[in-house]
Amino acid sequence: MTPDSLWVNSALVALGIFAGSFVSEDAALLSAASLASARVLSPVVALSSAALGICVGDLGLYGLARYFGPALSSKKWFAKRMTADKLARAQQFSQRWGIPALAASRFIPGSRLPMTVASGFLGMPLRKFAGVSALGSALWVLSVFGAVMTISARTSSVKLAFAMVAAVLLGSGVLATQWKRISAALGRWTRWEFWPAWLFYAPVAAMCLRLGVRYRGLALPTIANLNQKLGGMVGESKAEILAQLEATSPEMTARARLFEAGSLPQRIAVTRNAVAKNKFSFPFIFKPNLGQRGAGFRIVRNWDQVEDYLSRVTAPALLQEYAPGPLEAGIFYYRIPGETEGSIFAITDKIFPAVTGDGRSTVAELIDADPRARLIAGVYLKRLGAKAQNIPPSGEKVRLVEAGNHCQGCIFQDGKQLLSATLSQKIDQISQKLEGFYVGRYDVRYSSEEDLRDGRFTIIELNGASSEATSIYDARNSLSEAYAVLYRQWDLVYKIGAANRARGNKTASLGEVLREWLGYLKQSEKYPMAD
Fold first, then answer.
1. Domain 215-348+408-524 - what CATH class?
2. What ranges do the domains of the chain cover?
3. Could you give the 3-state DSSP secondary structure of residue 288?
4. How many Cβ atoms sit within 10 Å of the Cβ of residue 242?
5. Rounded to two decimals, what is the model's pTM?
6. What is the pLDDT of residue 161?
């Protein structure tokens, strides 16, 4: 890119952060800090756009309250709630404590909006408000930027700060009864791999905005793969993709059959017929035809479990033979249209966590004693249900998750040691047999590392443009390293989409993507929790 285009892209992202602060101040600030940490945006530009957006937003709220305050106070319905006595006390408080209260509100959740509005309504001088607001905003922005940079650098200062605060509160007895739960929550916030999706992916949205400008098309990912609906962004059929694989590489693919919506007796009858016809045997897999992040994944081991699953999932579902593995990996592949060879971008080594019984402790207590498992104990305990109170015999391993998805509790590690020329060639051969497929992640099961490197594995799923190089979730990666990988990944997706557009393919509208996403969310609400 030319220096001018880089400047334009940076300016657009900064404008997005500035405008985003009016919608969600915290999301915009964290996005700016994360982009700066990942070196996608200059720290000065990121910090300035976030700070300016916060200050302008505060001044806007102050101005509205001060301008409309007198007219509002004359309304009868308002006067009933804010009597002259209450108003006088509020003004006295504002005159004495208004400035320190306004300054403190920047750091007290839920207090900024009412204090800003109150400052305007009660007539705090503009110069004082602007000065305090600007100073508080600057300190808040610098604090957040410093915290994100510190976490990205993988230093222990943030953890030390949390420990010092916790020690003081514990000494006063405030947290004594809830310490385990609170310490787990603090642990999740200091490890970015456990951040909620809305927070972690906010910078990714900004990345896509920048790439959309660079390649002149925000919806280019919808034509990154021509053999999948919307390029594999959302709404793609697992059954159709697996059918393509089964037709082109049957020896490498776990067979699957689709069951359309219908009455429970009909679906059970169709399942029995498919099991007999295809000579499937228990256990086998059930999962929704439209699903993401392991939602609705179940291993069924008898006909009672089949009936239970089909009674819960009324949408079209997929029956798939079980690939025993026992090992599983995610292989992210790409090929630029027109090029003769594709490449493996990343490999994820999936570790299925388990706890080992000691003959005395319940499964719940064993989870609580595990340094990592305790951080997401809620996910495991909800899945286990009453089984969490079982006491396993000494030495017995209790597996905590079956679905190979990070959000379900599976552990992801960088699997670069699994890469080989033979594996890369095998994945490329399989991919090139799929007409119109250029980028996505294969989920495969295999019996040993040697087998995988030699190209012996079973494909259980293939995801399209919205899949990601899940090796980023390796706990050894810093936040900035993760975002750097995601930026390179999405750059490939947009580049492939642009190449397919140059070949005459038209992108879908962003409205269509949104409709599909909302439809999926509504449907997935009924999915049972994954095994």
1. alpha beta
2. 3-156, 215-348+408-524, 353-400
3. strand
4. 23
5. 0.67
6. 46
